[in-house]
From TrEMBL, chains A, B, C:
Complex and partners: Homotrimer.
Top-level taxonomic group: Bacteria
Pfam families in the record: Hexapep (PF00132), LpxD (PF04613)
Catalytic machinery residues: H246
UniProt function note: Catalyzes the N-acylation of UDP-3-O-acylglucosamine using 3-hydroxyacyl-ACP as the acyl donor. Is involved in the biosynthesis of lipid A, a phosphorylated glycolipid that anchors the lipopolysaccharide to the outer membrane of the cell.
Official protein name in the record: UDP-3-O-acylglucosamine N-acyltransferase
Stored SUPFAM superfamilies: Trimeric LpxA-like enzymes
Similarity-based family: Belongs to the transferase hexapeptide repeat family. LpxD subfamily.
Gene designation per UniProt: lpxD_1
GO cellular component: membrane
The keyword Repeat belongs to this UniProt entry's keyword annotation: yes
InterPro entries: Hexapep, LpxD, Trimer_LpxA-like_sf, UDP_GlcNAc_AcTrfase_non-rep
């Protein structure tokens, strides 16, 4: 299994990053990272929980970061880096590693940048990326190749916009945002007036505002408002293949799983957890700290801290209770048949 | 809230476009448009219904287009443009505004156009767009940057093909069509023959035909036919993230909401309304003026004017009626238990 | 109906490819292919089943490939090519035709290929495609225009990567794979740690491994593993708009229909058939030869050869049996009401 390629560290270098104590070979060389259940020679992994302690002495990994309370011996097959909390230390390490990967700077040959566009200090713009008039790219932001940036778009500092993302005219993206490949920000909302001859397009002249610290996965569609703005609030995280319709307002620190769709003008509060393949109708309000189970269909307002399931969605517990009986309906029908037969017997008595 | 940036009109200019009467300052300057519930200084909005009349005198907007029957005074805080139907006038204005945005013309530096391709008069082809041999782009059509156009593709007049759309070999697009970013027209249909060694690809050698006045949202996948054509009929409007499989035929003036999928060879009539996240199986026929509720799963033929819900989908009213009892199943089961206990009592008498 | 444009063959050429006998005009000219139910003059079609035999003498096609057991006369309106199995012969012909379409070779003007990248013999790299450092493209592979290939990516032999596909750093693709337009391989998995201040990104440092003979449709999102690899096994076929989350492992020869989503770390065996719009939760195991009905929500482990339906998914037959009663719930409730009324009558006796 290949991962974290091209790294090369010694156990003692790793230990110094996370303030760990080495048991074994200071110079053990690490060239990659494996999950503990499929460790490879030359790789690093970690053990943070007692229930994985059987991998001590048995994993093929050369170096293991281990929580100190799990360690019972002075000597293991692998080189051990003993730390207080192995999970935390491993995260610190991975973050460090990612930062070391380096950022690019400057405008690559073959990018097309309008004369009136502004590219900030230490920003990167990749080849075949198109930046339209009066667009503004903030300091340190990384715009990968083949991105489309429309007129008057503003992108904040330290963003990462992946290859093939499209950001249409006048949309605004805050600082520290990540937008993955092939996501479309600011496509027209789906609005038509029916006439006898067919549907007449209603102009979609608003924009999309994405606040700071938002991450949006790949292949998402976030439509511009008819007038005003579609808004994704600070710190909200959106998975892949998600539909956000025109004039939707999403608050802060929401987590929305893959393939979910939110219809027009719906308003969503803060700290909600929305599962995958959920559908939410238009023009409703969802409060805060709500949990919506995967595949649910939400058709009316939702109060704070509710947990929902089903289509149309009802309380999670009620849905599961009813579903138990749903599965048992053939049996219930037999019981009703019996009761009716008995009742007839009585009547015939 | 930012919207309709960079416009700059006076109240009297606006009034002249829509034949309105001004109450207030002819020279009031408009630099943007807001929804009435979040108006901003210097912005234009409209009031078409009595229930929004409390925004008269209270909205921060500088100019309001108002239906004349709502007006009761000779003087308001804002400059008023009085018209017969404010909603209609506002739409007229937005359409005008969009048209004034201007179209581009000519082939941008960095586009790759095959010698045998034909680009019509007043058409625009953006940078990094690839036009293959014998492709034909009609008069006035706007092909944005980074689009892929395959061999022998024909695109009609006055179309707009957004950045990142892919139109594969021999597909045909009519006049006045809009295809949004990252939509794929003419990818291979999903057809394989099972063999003992695995699945063998069945060549997908047909195409996709998109008739006039069709709009297709972003990130859609519309597959080419195995042989013959996948067809999207005149005036049909398709939202984002939608799957149309090989050999599907869709009629005229349908509206299909986001994330719906239609499986292979299904035939759909005219004027149907299909909700979001609907699944329709392959090889069935759906009539005309059918309504399919969001998240439904349609598994058999549908007659004209039916309304459906559920998975598998049944009549909308029947589904809702049954769902009320579904929610109440725990209570029903208690009642059955009681009846059985009573019945035993009788038996034991 | 337009299809298979620009071909031009005589009946005798076609017959020689598939070892058929001609009844009629050896020199009948074919310029396209039609489905039998919408045949056109000058086109070829086929009849492999008795139930389509009424198209003999009535189809507008000029040449028909027909299974010999269906033929009863020595003379038909159309030129007939008689073969043992018309369906098989037609497939052979379509495969031949597709191969004749030709492959491109070489690097097109305007592609951006890093000095350290390696492009194999007879491979094609289209304009505006970006190939990053140390990437490797195998012999004969066709990389269409506007593709993004990240650092250290390895693509095997004879692959086809369609326009707009994105393959992120260190992902590995085997031989004979097809990846359709705008699919994203190796985007970050959706992993965050909740903190009081918001969600903190967990670095996603693994990759995606796609084994030989895999086909992946358009607009799919296949996320890289957190550490280790997300794996798509040999011969598996994936339709459009599908989500595969981080650390999922899919075995060999699976068929997964459009708009299905598989959540993180789930493990799927071999030869499974997964319908469209299915949701599969994370961290479960699905065996082999399982069939999952469209729109199902799978929430727990699945044994070999099970067939599932519903959300949450249960046995297909059980779901349908219960659903019959679900549709009938209003009637069942009436029967319970009656029983209760009768029971009261008895009690009141």
């Amino acid at each position: 299994m290949l991962s974290l390629q091209n790294m090369e560290f010694t156990a003692s270098q790793i230990a110094s990053f996370i303030d760990g104590k080495i048991i074994g070979d200071d110079n053990a060389l690490i060239t990659g990272v494996s999950p503990i259940e499929s460790g490879e020679t030359g790789h690093l992994s970690f053990i943070a929980q007692e229930r994985f302690s059987h991998y001590l002495d048995t994993s093929n990994c050369s170096v293991l970061i281990v929580s100190e309370n799990i360690l019972t011996k002075n000597n293991y097959t692998q080189t051990i880096i003993s730390v207080k909390d192995a999970y935390l230390s491993f995260q610190v390490l991975m973050n460090l590693y990612q930062e070391m990967q380096g950022r690019k700077e400057g405008v690559e040959d073959g990018a097309s940048i309008h004369d009136t566009a502004v590219v900030g200090d230490k920003a990167y713009v990749g080849a075949f990326t198109y930046v339209s008039e009066k667009a503004k790219i903030g300091e340190g932001s990384q715009i990968y190749p083949q991105v489309y940036i429309g007129k008057g778009v503003k992108i904040g500092k330290n963003c990462k916009i992946d290859s093939g993302a499209r950001i249409y005219d006048y949309c605004i993206i805050g600082d520290n945002c990540i937008i993955h490949s092939n996501t479309v920000i600011g496509g027209d909302g789906f609005g038509f007036q029916p006439t006898a001859d067919g549907f007449k397009k209603i102009p979609q002249l608003g924009n999309v505002i994405i606040e700071d610290d938002v991450e949006i996965g790949s292949n998402c569609s976030i439509d511009r408002a008819t007038i005003g703005s579609t808004i994704i609030g600070k710190g909200t995280k959106i998975d892949n293949l998600i539909q956000i319709a025109h004039n939707v307002k999403i608050g802060q620190n929401n987590v929305i799983a893959s393939q979910t769709g939110i219809a027009g003008s719906t308003i969503i509060g803060d700290w909600n957890q929305i599962g995958g393949q959920v559908g939410i109708v238009g023009h409703i309000k969802i409060g805060n700290q709500v949990k919506i189970q995967a595949q649910s269909g939400v058709t009316s307002n939702v109060n704070d801290r509710e947990t929902l399931y089903g289509s149309p969605a009802i309380s999670y517990n009620d849905y599961l209770r009813s579903y138990v009986h749903f599965r048992n309906l053939p049996e219930l029908v037999k019981r009703i048949n019996n009761l009716e037969n008995n009742s007839k017997d009585h009547t015939n008595e």
